[in-house]
Amino acid sequence: MSNYLVHLKQADSSGISTAGGKAANLAELCKIADIRIPDGFCINTTAFVQVLNRLPKIHELLDQLALLQLTDRKDIARLSVAIRQTIEEATIPADLAAIIAAHVDPQKTYAIRSSATAEDLPSASFAGQQDSYLNIRGKAPVLEHISKCWASLFTERAILYRIQNGFDHRKVYVAVIVQEMVFPQAAGILFTADPRTGNRKHAIIDAGFGLGEALVSGIVSADQYTVEDSTIVRKTIAEKKQQMVVAPNGGTEIQALDSLQQRQQVLTSAQILELEKLGRRIEAHFGTPQDIEWCLADGLLYILQSRPITTLFPLPEEQDNELHIYISVGHNQVMTDAMKPLGLSFFLMTTRAPMKTAGGRLFIDVAWTLTTAEGRKRLIEGFGKTDHLIRDALEQAAESIPLMATDDKSPSVTSIAPAPSCPEDPDIVEELIRKNEASVASLKQEIRSKSGLDVFNYIQEDLEELKRISFDPQSTALIMASMNAALWLNEKIQDWLGEKNVADILAQSVPHNITAQMGLDLMDVADRIRPYPQIVDYLQQTKDEHFLEQLPCYEGGAEISNTILSFLDRYGIRGTGEIDISRPRWAEKPLTLIPALLSNISIFAPGESRRKFEQGLQEALQKETTVLQRLQQLPDGAQKAQEAQQMIGQLRRFSG
Predict the structure, then answer these.
(1) Helix (H) and strand (E) counts in the chain
(2) What is the DSSP string of 318-337?
(3) Is the pLDDT of residue 577 over 50?
(4) Taking every pair of C-alpha atoms in the chain, what is the biggest distance, in angstroms?
(5) Which residues contact 594 (CB under 8 A, 6 or more apart)?
């Protein structure tokens, strides 16, 4: 139409830089068959830039705004008012005003909406950050509200959102959409995936009477319908006391609903299913779950906007339409940070389990396990003892999965293998440790002779040795024996004697327990720091993640720094460093080590670590004696005591 204005149906859907995200999405929606879009045009960002370039004061204000942080709320509010006032009071250039006026029918009413270049993006929606104006009639009012839309780029909420998301205020522009007004009887939001649970099969529809702006802003209540595979699976009918409608003299107003309409279902079942069908068509076109604004006018459904749902966690990629149920490996190990690509790749090359990645995390698919009675029982019972939330989710998922007979030819990679039998020889622990240490020593010796590409080739070849050691049946048997013993003791002793978590006490100070050894070594580090009060004072004050670099400035600091580094290099800090080979384990957040060190310095006396270890062993032995004596007094006490003693021995031998 012109350099400043383009019809929505003719807009370039890829032109976010000139039309803004909202207009670009509307242009794309116009290409989809049977999708109704209110007719209108877009005033592109070229017009906005031209207006701003005629206002020297704006550039001074933007220079001030660029220096502000989220905490500068008063200055942000002051500059927001000044910038918006400057833009709204500016005269629109005559040539631009004439072009806009030529496309405005004074007999029609319009909805005027902003369309920023940083809006409706896959990574940040910016939803609701700029203003919209409804039921605007007449050429002069349309021009006035276009200026208001430009100015709304600098509302306080929009400024704060850009600062929070790292967008430069000078590099975000705003276009304006002018559409013929639709007067709906109902309106709302359609999510083609449940934004709360992430369920991609559920379409969630919020529906209220009147204009949708009131629902989006939370002024009115809404019905909610859940649709799965063209079937309405849930309806929640809200008590709707009011609606937003167009006002006779322009703009909008809130209107009370009569008592009968307050409990009336907003959409019919046929309209709900039609809306879900339109949503799936839009989702398929954009290739990602959508957040869709819609309205119902005279029995017809109109789409007012569609944007990606930016809050959904990504799913692992699959090449089929089968059911998949994923459990996060990291979260199950209390390691929630994202891993780097190298760490993910390395882990996937060493695990035998069928794992997938999404959002920088590792996931294991347990859907197949839930299809057999035995697999389902093992999986749910296993998580029932460690993570009740996952157990509850698995139970809920299992309700919709039919059981099938065990089929040896079916994929079994996601099933849980039965626990190996418990080793009889307790010396197997020392033997496995010796073999592991010998393998690591050999690796260190051989890799020193490699360089360049040969290093990577050698590592790739050595992964087979790593897998052999990691999944040695004897090692697996030890791990399972220890876990089973702990679970058995906690369950049985609580049932028989009413004591909870008794295995935690019984397992104190057992040999080869890396966690116990880590605690002892940490106390030793504290003992090394204790004689240097300047270092203790520094550690009490510092918030610097690079505090280790500053320690050599103090007496004894170089030695202390090396001691802490040695500890971190051996044990790391619990987090993704345990499985992410792409970074040193101690590079997690070494600052988090300081509170533990200071606590040990203030609470324990020098050398108390070894005494504490011996004390833990004595407490464990005393607890064993007490438990066995109490069991002897129960009916069938001799049998119970014998079983418990066997499990305590198993726990102590193999829990390292």
Answers:
(1) 25, 16
(2) -SS-S---EEEHHHHTT--S
(3) no
(4) 101
(5) 539, 542, 547
